[in-house]
Amino acid sequence: CGVFGVVGVADAANFVALGLHALQHRGQEAGGIVSYDPDHGFNSARRFGYVRDNFTKPDVMETLPGSLAIGHVRYSTAGSKGATAIRDVQPFFGEFSMGGAAIAHNGNLTNAAALRRELIERGSIFQSSSDSECIIHLMARSIQKNIPERIKDALRRVEGAFSVVAMTRTKLIGVRDPLGVRPLVLGRVGDSGWALSSETCGLDIIGAEFIREIDPGEMVVIEGNKVESFRPFAPAKSRFCIFEHVYFSRPDSILGGRSVYETRHQIGVELAKEAPVEADLVCPVPDSGTPAAIGYSQQSGIPYAMGIIRNQYMGRTFIEPTEQIRNMGVRLKLNVNRALIKGKRVILVDDSVVRGTTSRKIKDMILDAGAAEVHFRIASPPTAWPCFYGVDTPERSKLLAATMSEDEMRDWIGVDSLKFISLDGLYRAAGEAAGRDAASPRYCDACFSGDYPIAPSDKIEEGFEM
Ligand code: 5GP
Ligand code: SF4
Ligand code: MG
């Protein structure tokens, strides 16, 4: 998901709509904005579909006045069951004795099921199926006298990954979980306003100046010109999601002090060193494989070419919730550049193999077009473990790499060769010259290593074995 907030500018909701549009790649199912203005109080609009189709309409935007607003773009993750209902669309809102507050959450709470059970037993009435709603109910039960303190109380009880953007009548609040698994950045809007965004590309779109990242375990409370910083949690070593660099974030974002594009490009360079092969062309699987394919081509000297053309008007395939739609999506979205591919030995660079469905279909398309050989190079290590921290991966048994060796995967996909970047190679590309420090890894890489930095306690209770 993506979160965004703005304070201190007229018609803040318009800025939030733009910010969410820049973060649309983080969630395409639905979006919502809450604003506050003294005449109308809190206002909210939640809609299915793209930001541009909903939050550009005058009849929607007119209902969101005020100089303080937050928003959210949603895609449902492992935590949520089935399709999104409108009641699952954030921001969530709560009315407390000291006034209302709205929150938007990116990430996944790993103890939400246990908390929900406990809260329901004690009288909470849940409106949604979302793990994030626990935060509002925990705030309601807090005995603290102001909302920032209640947010601290609530977030000290949750486990998992969270980048939260919240608002009261006057304050914009941002928090990152102690490990900083999901990103969150702070920007300056003109000389009166502030913005919080999942990624720096959300600041760029509104012309905001990137000030800094919110630190792992940090909470900022912004009111007027003042940005106050708190450390509500016990200190921990940060474990930013390495998959944000591989796939999830936009390549023009700068996260963890590093350009996402640069990391992806370097992944291609590392891959060409680790897994060279003789071929005529290096082609990306658009768009997520593009920077790595450029790096592979530059390092190997094999020409880069667009062997697969993407229809600009389709969304990210993976993010549509059902498997059936996902399978269809691949053909709706991608087509082969036949004139280029015929008779060629082609290296295809993609970001990841999850179920393997995408790779298999792409291989079929490339062979149908008359390619002489197909070699897959993957910009991440084999995805052998599910993510419980906010990226949608299927259960372990559906992950190709959980049940097959690399050679078996190659044969199942049906290509001449298949190679994944090593975990060390990925760390080198992400700026760790010495590779992965096994004793104290810099990033979360659980979906590749099975090394979960936060115990997925709900899943363990359901029988998940680490
Ligand atoms: P597969 O068909 O192997 O299950 O899907 C892998 C493809 O889905 C990759 O090409 C990747 O670009 C795309 N994808 C979209 N969203 C995600 C995600 O949340 N996690 C992973 N690992 N891949 C995703
Ligand atoms: Fe990111 Fe993978 Fe960790 Fe999930 S398990 S937070 S996708 S690195
Ligand atoms: Mg892809």
In short:
Keywords: 4Fe-4S, Glutamine amidotransferase, Glycosyltransferase, Iron, Iron-sulfur, Magnesium, Metal-binding, Purine biosynthesis, Transferase. This protein is 31% helix and 24% strand.
How would you describe what is shown here?
- The protein has 466 residues and is of the alpha+beta class.
- The chain has 2 domains: 2-238, 4-Layer Sandwich (Glutamine Phosphoribosylpyrophosphate, subunit 1, domain 1); 259-452, 3-Layer(aba) Sandwich (Rossmann fold).
- 31% of the residues lie in helices and 24% in strands.
- It is built from 18 helices and 23 strands.
- The strands form 6 sheets. The protein has a 7-stranded antiparallel β-sheet.
- The longest helix has 15 residues, at 260-274.
- The two termini are 25 Å apart.
- The model has no long low-confidence stretch (mean pLDDT 94).
- The protein binds guanosine-5'-monophosphate, iron/sulfur cluster and magnesium ion (MG).
